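worker-03 picked up job from queue 'complexes'. Input manifest follows; two sequence lines, order preserved.
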Amino acid sequence: MTSPAVSVRTARPADVPEILAMIRELAEFERALDEVEATEEHLHRTLFADEPAVFGHVAVAADGHLAGLAVWFLNYSTWQGSHGLYLEDLYVRPAHRGQGVGRLLLQTLAAVCVERGYPRFEWWVLDWNESARRVYETVGAEALTEWVPYRVSGAALLRLARPDAPA
Amino acid sequence: MTSPAVSVRTARPADVPEILAMIRELAEFERALDEVEATEEHLHRTLFADEPAVFGHVAVAADGHLAGLAVWFLNYSTWQGSHGLYLEDLYVRPAHRGQGVGRLLLQTLAAVCVERGYPRFEWWVLDWNESARRVYETVGAEALTEWVPYRVSGAALLRLARPDAPA
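worker-03 finished. Artifact:
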């Protein structure tokens, strides 16, 4: 399951065009390409700020092209009184699938957790993405099916923020 | 639904003992009191660091005691190229329920989102917590039932981080 031809390293500013391309490829796969508003400038500002709050790792193929991407940040558990690692995006390009690239990215981030003492490594997956879910279960991740994510956005967020404003 | 006797403000260091008590009350309600490892010292270090990454808002009753708690941090959407607000814990003490305290905390955090330009306000809820889910739907939140949270922790996290280590 290892992928000797692919290595993982932290993202660099020169990776930004390919990172954005992969973010768009992933969104297309997740049937939400129209929701991508990120730009190269956003990514430069976010991943390479003086004290970044969002981090990227990339998988690099033997020919130097990027084979995969992990974008992550720190979350926090009040119960554990500790930060954890939240994986926002994990993506492996179609030509590199089935070679353990996703697992290599997950291993790298698990090692970041262990090194820094973060007790939890978490992410979300679309329920119909069965091939991803199989990989996650193989690496020892547990589906937290008892928890349901909620979101307020757009007009509903404005209404909630300003309950007394005229509609 | 408003609660004129209760006001919301950002947490202060003197609130820490009551904040920890509420974290424990919430964990007990969520049937996971044995998972609480946070201490007053953890909370002081986290919520009141020089540049905190985790934030607290409290609801204060007319008698000065704390009626409720919200603990939150920033998450990030690669699609939107933007931070959002993630609510880790929302709790209203039993004596103050049914008075709109939870809604007041949600309104306050929605206002933080709008003020800072965060397009998304998100959290998780236990699927069996129907009274909370009713409140969330009333305030315009949407259940993201297509997404499944995953977690690696404990021995599985160590194994994933060190795949070549002896078992």
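worker-03 released lock.
The mean pLDDT of chain A is 92.
Strands of chain A lie at 7-10, 54-60, 66-77, 82-92, 120-126, 142-143, 147-153.
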